[in-house]
Amino acid sequence: MARLSMIEAINLTLHELMAQDDRVVVLGEDVGIDGGVFRATVGLIDKFGESRVIDTPLAESCIVGAAIGMAIYGMRPIAEIQFEGFMFKAYDQIYSHASRMRHRSRGRFTVPLVIRAPYGAGVRALEHHSDAPEALFTHIPGLKVVIPSSPLEAKGLLTSSVEDPDTVIFLEPKRLYRLSKEEVPEGRYAIPLGQSRVVAEGHDVTVVTFGGMVSVCENAVNHVAAEGVSVELIDLRTVWPFDANAIVSSVEKTGRLVIVHEAPRSFGVGAEIAAIAGEKCLLSLQSPIRRVTGYDVIPPLSKLEDYNYPNIEKVVRAIHETMQF
C-alpha cells in the first residue's frame, strides 16, 4: 500500500470511482485543466476527458443545479466547490431541491450527488475560506454530512458517499490535506456512513469530535494519559446522521463527556450531541458536559486564527475540569 496524504487519497479515490462507473462525473471551477485549487482532481481530465471532468463557470448555484439534474437522470455527479464559504451561493439548490427531491417525488427520484468542499481553518486563508458551516447543513432533512479525519478515512467515506442514493455534503478539512500520510489501499475501500470510529478506548472520560479536531484531540489524549487519565476518543466521521448509540454507550461507561469542534459554539453540532447525552445518559453523568469550540465570531484572519479554535491546551483543560468536578 502507498503512503498518501489526504489530498492524494481523495485524488486516487476519484480516479478509481470514475474508472469503475462511467456514471461518475466531476464538475466545478478549475477541476479540469488546472486540477482543482488544492489539486484534488489532477489527472482526471487527461484520463476521462472533458465530457466527464467539466470545468464550469464561476457560478456555484449553476454547478449544483446542473449536478442535481444529472443525478435525477441517473448519473453520479461529484460537484466541487472551491471553498466552503462559497457553498452558500448554492444553498437554495441544496435546501430547496437536492435535499427534498425524494420526498417531493414520493420516492420516484433520488439525488445521488456528492458536493465536495475544502473546509475549516488552519492554513491562514483569506475571508470566506476558513468557516466551519456543518451545522447549517445538518439542519436540512434529506442530507448527509460527512467530514473525514485522515487519508484512509477520506477514501472510505468518499467511496460510500458517491455510492449513496441521496445527497452527501462532503467537507474536507483543508488543514489535513497535506498534514500527514498513512497507508491507503488501492481498489474499493468503503466506510459505512453513519458509523463512528473509536480512535482510542478508555474508561474515565469520553471525547467526541470529528474532522480536523481528531488529531488535536489525539494529542490531548496522549497528554492526559501520562497523568493516568484514560480517555475514550470517538471520531464521528458522519456528522449527520451521527452515531448516537456509540456516544451513549461510551458515556454510560465513562460518566463524563467532552465535545470538540472548530465551528462556533452556539447551536453547533456539539449542542445536539450534548442534548442526546443529557436525554439518554443523565443518570450516568458524573460531571457537567464540556464543549471546546470556536468562538461565536466571524472567522478571524491569520494573526488571530490560533486564538479562536480548539487546541491541545484547551482540550486538556476541559478534560481536567470534567475529571475534577
Short summary of the structure?
The protein has 325 residues and is α/β, with parallel strands linked by helices. Helix content is 36%, strand content 20%. It has helices spanning 6-20, 44-48, 60-72, 91-98, 101-104, 134-138, 151-163, 213-225, 244-254, 269-281, 305-308, 312-324; strands at residues 2-4, 24-28, 53-55, 76-80, 114-119, 144-146, 168-173, 182-184, 197-200, 205-209, 231-235, 238-240, 257-264, 290-294.
The tally of beta strands, per DSSP, is 14
Mean pLDDT value = 95
The fraction of residues in strands falls at: 15-25%
Instruction: Profile the largest sheet.
Output: 7 strands, mixed
What would the CATH topology of the largest domain be? Rossmann fold
Oligomeric assembly = single chain
Number of domains: 2
The end-to-end distance, rounded to whole angstroms, is 46 Å
Radius of gyration, CA atoms, in whole angstroms:
20 Å
Extract low-pLDDT stretches.
none
| Approximate helicity band | 25-40%
CATH architect. name of the largest domain:
3-Layer(aba) Sandwich
Task: Summarize the helix and strand pattern as letters.
Answer: EHEHEHEHHEHEHEEEEHEEHEHEHH
Count the helices. How many?
A: 12
Characterization of this structure:
Helices cover about 35% and strands about 20% of the residues. Helix 1 (about 5-20) packs parallel to helix 7, helix 8 packs across helix 12 (about 310-325) and helix 9 (about 245-255) packs across helix 10. Strands 3-2-4-5-7-6-12 form a 7-stranded mixed beta sheet, sandwiched between helices. A 5-stranded mixed beta sheet has the order 9-11-10-13-14, with helices on both faces. The chain is α/β, with parallel strands linked by helices and about 325 residues long. It is globular and about 60 Å long. It folds into 2 domains: about 1-185, Thiamin diphosphate (ThDP)-binding fold, Pyr/PP domains (Rossmann fold, 3-Layer(aba) Sandwich); about 195-325, Rossmann fold. Strand 10 (about 205-210), helix 8 (about 215-225) and strand 11 form a beta-alpha-beta unit.
